[in-house]
Specification:
Order of helices and strands: HEEHHHHHHHHHHHHH
Shape: globular
Helix content: over 70%
Distance between the termini: 44 Å
Number of strands: 2
Number of helices: 14
Low-confidence stretches: 340-346
Structural class: mainly alpha
Mean pLDDT: 89
């Protein structure tokens, strides 16, 4: 308990540093003209600086490297260094724009290196009998997809911060309740409890400037490395023996992003172009405010945290319930129309 109290203190420090850093970036981002101007694909109505995600990413990377928790056995430094490299590449993308192929190659390299030098040191996922060469291609695709899902879902004020808070809190809650007594999984669990609290705290700090009406946006410099780190933490949760929980916690993000991609492909729309056809964006276009949507997602995600905590007792049932509920929430958002009683206006 004393150790967990220390982690709470660390999380509060990360929250404060992330909040202060995010607010401090505002004048600099404005000065270098890194500003999103509204257009027909935007969900905001006033010019807003982007790139604020640089603050929480720097806080996480520098704090993690300063702590050096289990760096020898868990490859922590490698994950943090790769997140920093992704942030650097994404900052260039925010400022000048990069060819999508370069972005994809950079993200693929980061995931591949992380699997080879960090995740390889973790306990095996699943039964431990499946050869790595069979398992890792699927893990690489899943990690790469979630990194981009986090970016795709960063389309309204507050949503990314809400997701970081609930993902981080959920990871910590599962491992505190079901902590392994000893061995490699216990070592990994200890590190992930701290990582989850730090992820959630960094998201909460950023949210102080990003809650509706947002004064600053994450930008790719924030959403890509934060998605990468979150995906790594979820893989860690699976390695610690909680694969069902690792699927349950991001269920809303996975369902919204994946169904939107499938629908756009079905309609023949260019999937690499910006759009406003995610379920949460349709809810905003219907008249719900950004804050209204985020509150609903926050409440829903808290239910996912509960299912994740219960998942070791019934993994198939809880995972199925999570994805069914996420599908119903997306359907609810997509069926909203302007002027409906539950569309409360922006």
């Amino acid at each position: 308990m004393a150790e967990h109290a220390g982690l709470v203190g660390l999380a509060l420090a990360v929250f404060a540093a992330s909040a202060i850093g995010t607010h401090a970036l505002l004048p600099w981002l404005t000065a270098i003209r890194l500003v999103d101007h509204p257009n027909d694909r935007s969900s905001h109505v006033v010019p807003t600086p982007r790139g604020g995600g640089l603050a929480p990413v720097l806080v996480l990377v520098l704090t993690g490297m300063a702590l050096g928790v289990n760096r020898t056995t868990l490859g922590t430094d490698m994950l943090l260094a790769l997140a920093g490299a992704l942030a650097t590449m994404s900052l260039v993308d925010d400022r000048r724009g990069l060819d999508p192929r370069i972005r994809f190659l950079g993200q693929s390299a980061a995931v591949g290196l992380a699997l080879a030098f960090a995740v390889a040191a973790w306990p095996p996922i699943g039964d431990g009998q499946t050869p790595a060469w069979l398992l890792w291609p699927g893990l690489a695709l899943a990690w790469l997809w979630f990194t981009n899902v986090f970016n795709f879902m960063d389309g309204i004020d507050g949503l990314s911060g809400v997701e970081l808070i609930t993902l981080g809190a959920g990871i910590a809650a599962v491992l505190i309740v079901h902590h392994a007594p000893a061995g490699a999984q216990a070592v990994l669990s200890d590190a992930l409890i701290g990582a989850g609290l730090m992820l959630g705290a960094s998201g909460a700090g950023f949210l102080t400037a990003n809650w509706h009406p947002a004064r600053i946006f994450l930008g790719d410099v924030g959403s890509i490395p934060l998605g990468f780190l979150s995906g790594g933490a979820l893989l860690g949760l699976a390695s610690a023996g909680f694969a069902a929980a690792a699927l349950i916690l991001p269920a809303y993000y996975l369902v919204d992003a994946t169904t939107t991609l499938v629908l756009r492909l079905f309609r023949g729309e260019p999937v690499t172009q910006p759009h406003r056809s995610h379920a949460y964006q349709i809810a905003v276009r219907s008249g719900l405010s950004h804050a209204d949507v985020c509150k609903r997602v926050m409440l829903f995600n808290l239910g996912l945290v509960l299912l994740a905590v219960l998942s070791p007792m019934a993994p198939v049932l809880t995972t199925g319930l999570a994805f069914l509920a996420a599908s119903l929430l997306c359907l609810f958002f997509r069926r909203l129309r302007p002027g409906q009683p539950n569309a409360t206006g922006r």
